[in-house]
């Protein structure tokens, strides 16, 4: 149930911030042309991305992340309840096989995940059952062999019959004999913890876990940032962060370069010659729907896990996309443009250079953007499988050592770089082919 | 001219079309849709090879496109990756003409068509009428012997169209080029045709030929005045009726067939 809480908070912030922003801010700023439109529902051009919403959206993600990881970046009153840290005590009653009873108490202590464990000391107390102590790590539960310092022993048939004043029927000796009350393990709530019994009758103490995520599942944002700085300075697995990123980018760029170098002329040839079109159509149309990831095993068998294999893989990922983009760029030339150029006296070579190539550039740029995106995804996946350097290898190795902070850092980094590549391609497209879509 | 269709049948797009053009003539071709106007022009331009007959120009047979026959298309034939200046200078550049000379020709032509302020603009920044002016200038820059126009003003609005008609007339008179103009507007055909050919469909053939005075009257004059000419209305009604009947006939035939 608690997993619904972040979602409810998220929806709450979504609705709440909308109401606040629309009530307060919008009355002041809505003065543009769109504000005069009476029909906005269904008019796609009237839907403009609300920057305020974008900012709040990103902040909300970080807020939720901080709240449920106990981040120092979020004020502590906003934190979701954390796991219990500190001491607790409860009493229990033991009954021996011959019916003798004695009570004792358990002092348990929850220590932070890192730090030295200090075993609390208690008086043994009087009677056959002695008082016990137990130290539990944060987010964990602890098991207590309560009879290790007692005169009673579970081997002799002694068992717990009462925890914190509540009667307990569970009898480990009769385990597996039907399903009477003696077979049901008790769940007793004591302050700040739940107590139950193991199969063999030992005490299991589960302190209150809270609503926060354990760092091993989701580290707080500042841990991720700290890791980033640390790895940027000291590197990870023998390579600096710049080397990891640089190797991945280098593979993408080299693979894409060769893919474009072969793919674009191939596409042109397919767009201009019957023989080329007939020869390569089956190959291109077959290879296009094969996801590059499916080629990884074959490429590893053929070229190994080194640089060659990865570059061959990215070459194959980019090749078909670029060939198809160049081909559709050529077939997209309006015949009137070609006719016009011929009747202005242009030769075949001049038609190619001044009409077909510039006319196909927008298509090629679109293809290049797609190819770069696919290459970036493929290189990370290929590095996940096997690599010595690279961001994909970094997060894969980190996950094996449960360095969740490195994994998250790597994912964020991969996302930012992928986004950066796309922005760069769009910018190049705007600068180099301003006539795109305006023919 | 016969087109063989993939299903084995064929369409007789043109049949027994015989024309002789004198140098400097302005001929407009009019006809209902599907009468083979564009096919005729494509054959003259050299984009299509005729199945029968031939085109002879300047004493040699036409076998393909050539710089001696310039072409102005309806729309979208400009190179949007080039500026206005580069578009107009395309022909001379392909011939390898010197830069200075090209520049002189381009500047002159852009002044003539009234685009002196738009020389360095990208063509996609211009309006439709301006783009057609660029197309005219580009064709003239190459100094062709014949200019073929395939509904060059068809995509323009009515007001721009009238202005452009005057421009075409002015350029015709100034340069003395032979012009073949294809149109589906009766008014345009009357105003821009020394010679007017009305074509009939199925098979495409020459239905009637006129010699008209309006093009000469229109040079340098207001075209709206020309339209008040008594003969103009008579001719217009006559040709409209002719095309009307052709359309009726086509419709009737398709109805009978179905």
Binned, the helix content of chain B reads 40-55%
Helix content of chain A: 40-55%
What count of domains describes the coordinates of chain A?
A: 3
Low-confidence stretches of chain A: none
| Widest β-sheet, arrangement of strands of chain A | 3-2-1-5-6
Terminal residue distance of chain A: 57 Å
The CATH topology name of the largest domain in chain A reads: MetI-like fold
Shape of chain A: elongated
- Could you give the count of β-strands of chain B? 10
Short description:
The complex is a heterodimer of chains A (439) and B (258). Chain A has 439 residues and is an alpha+beta fold.
Tags for this model:
heterodimer; A: 439 residues; alpha+beta; MetI-like fold; 3 domains; 5-stranded mixed beta sheet; B: 258 residues; alpha/beta; two-stranded antiparallel ribbon; globular
Could you characterize what this model shows?
The complex is a heterodimer of chains A (439) and B (258). Chain A is α+β, with helices and mostly antiparallel strands. Chain A has 3 domains: 2-78, no CATH class; 86-207, no CATH class; 221-432, MetI-like fold, CATH 1.10.3720. Chain A is built from 12 helices and 9 strands. In chain A, the strands form 2 sheets. Chain A has a 5-stranded mixed β-sheet with strand order 3-2-1-5-6, with no helix packed on it. In chain A, strands 4-9-8-7 form a 4-stranded antiparallel β-sheet, with no helix packed on it. The longest helix of chain A has 38 residues, at 348-385. Chain A is elongated and about 115 Å long. Chain A starts with a helix and ends in a 7-residue tail after the last helix. The model of chain A has no long low-confidence stretch (mean pLDDT 88). Chain B is an alpha/beta fold. In chain B, strand 9 (195-200) and strand 10 (205-211) form a beta hairpin. Chain B is globular, with a radius of gyration of 19 Å. Classes of the chains: A alpha+beta (439), B alpha/beta (258). At the A-B interface, helix 9 and helix 10 of A face strand 6 and helix 3 of B.
């Amino acid at each position: 149930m608690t997993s619904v809480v972040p979602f409810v908070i998220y929806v709450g912030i979504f609705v709440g911030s909308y109401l606040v922003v629309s009530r307060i801010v919008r009355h002041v700023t809505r003065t543009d042309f769109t504000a005069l439109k009476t029909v906005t529902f269904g008019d796609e051009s009237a839907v403009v991305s609300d920057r305020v919403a974008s900012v709040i959206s990103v902040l909300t993600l970080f807020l939720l992340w901080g709240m449920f990881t106990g981040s120092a970046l979020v004020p502590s009153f906003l934190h979701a309840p954390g796991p219990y840290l500190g001491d607790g005590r409860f009493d229990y009653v033991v009954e021996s096989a011959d019916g003798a009873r004695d009570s004792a108490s358990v002092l348990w202590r929850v220590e932070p995940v890192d730090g030295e464990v200090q075993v609390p000391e208690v008086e043994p107390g009087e009677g056959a059952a002695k008082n016990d102590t137990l130290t539990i790590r944060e987010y964990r539960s602890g098991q207590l062999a309560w009879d290790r310092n007692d005169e009673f022993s579970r081997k002799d048939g002694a068992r717990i019959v009462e925890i914190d004043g509540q009667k307990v029927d569970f009898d480990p000796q009769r385990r597996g004999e039907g399903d009477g009350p003696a077979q049901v393990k008790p769940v007793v709530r004591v302050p700040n913890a739940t107590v139950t019994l193991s199969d063999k009758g030992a005490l299991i103490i589960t302190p209150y876990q809270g609503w926060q995520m354990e760092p091993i599942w989701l580290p707080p944002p500042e841990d991720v940032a700290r890791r980033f700085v640390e790895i940027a300075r000291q590197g990870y697995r023998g390579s600096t962060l710049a080397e990891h990123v640089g190797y991945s980018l280098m593979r993408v760029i080299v693979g894409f370069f060769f893919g474009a170098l072969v793919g674009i002329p191939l596409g042109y040839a397919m767009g201009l010659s019957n023989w080329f079109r007939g020869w390569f159509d089956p190959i291109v149309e077959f290879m296009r729907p094969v996801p590059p990831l499916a080629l990884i095993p074959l490429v590893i068998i053929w070229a190994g896990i080194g640089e060659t294999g990865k570059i061959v893989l990215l070459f194959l990922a980019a090749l078909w996309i670029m060939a198809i983009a160049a081909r559709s760029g050529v077939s997209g030339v309006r015949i009137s443009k070609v006719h016009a150029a011929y009747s202005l006296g242009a030769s075949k070579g001049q038609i190619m250079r001044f009409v077909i190539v510039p006319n196909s550039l927008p298509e090629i740029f679109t293809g290049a953007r797609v190819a770069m995106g696919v290459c970036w995804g493929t290189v990370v996946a290929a590095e996940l499988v096997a690599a010595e350097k690279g961001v994909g290898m970094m997060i894969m190795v980190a996950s094996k050592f449960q360095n969740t902070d490195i994994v998250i850092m790597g994912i964020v980094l991969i996302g930012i770089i992928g986004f950066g590549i796309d922005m760069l391609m769009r910018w190049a497209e705007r600068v180099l082919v301003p006539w795109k879509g305006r023919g | 001219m016969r087109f063989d269709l993939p299903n084995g049948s064929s369409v007789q797009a043109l049949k027994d079309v015989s024309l002789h053009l004198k140098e400097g003539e302005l001929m407009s071709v009019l006809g209902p849709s599907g009468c083979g106007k564009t096919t005729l022009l494509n054959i003259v331009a050299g984009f299509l090879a005729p199945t029968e007959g031939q085109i002879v120009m300047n004493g040699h047979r036409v076998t393909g496109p050539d710089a001696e026959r310039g072409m102005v298309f309806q729309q979208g034939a400009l190179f949007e990756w080039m500026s206005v200046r580069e578009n107009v200078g395309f022909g001379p550049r392909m011939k390898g003409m010197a830069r200075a000379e090209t520049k002189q020709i381009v500047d002159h032509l852009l002044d003539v068509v009234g685009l002196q302020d738009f020389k360095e603009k990208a063509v996609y920044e211009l309006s439709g009428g301006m783009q057609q002016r660029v197309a005219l200038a580009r064709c003239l820059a190459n100094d062709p012997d014949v200019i073929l126009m395939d509904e060059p003003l068809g995509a323009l609005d009515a007001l721009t169209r009238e202005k452009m008609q005057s421009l075409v007339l002015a350029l015709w008179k100034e340069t003395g080029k032979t012009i073949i103009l294809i149109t589906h507007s009766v008014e345009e055909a009357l105003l821009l045709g020394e010679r007017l050919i009305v074509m009939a469909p199925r098979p495409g053939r020459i239905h009637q030929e006129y010699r008209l005075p309006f093009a000469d009257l229109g040079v340098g004059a207001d075209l709206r005045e020309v339209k008040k000419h008594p003969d103009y209305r008579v001719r217009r009604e006559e040709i409209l009726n002719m095309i009307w009947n052709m359309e009726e006939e086509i419709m009737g035939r398709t109805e009978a067939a179905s």
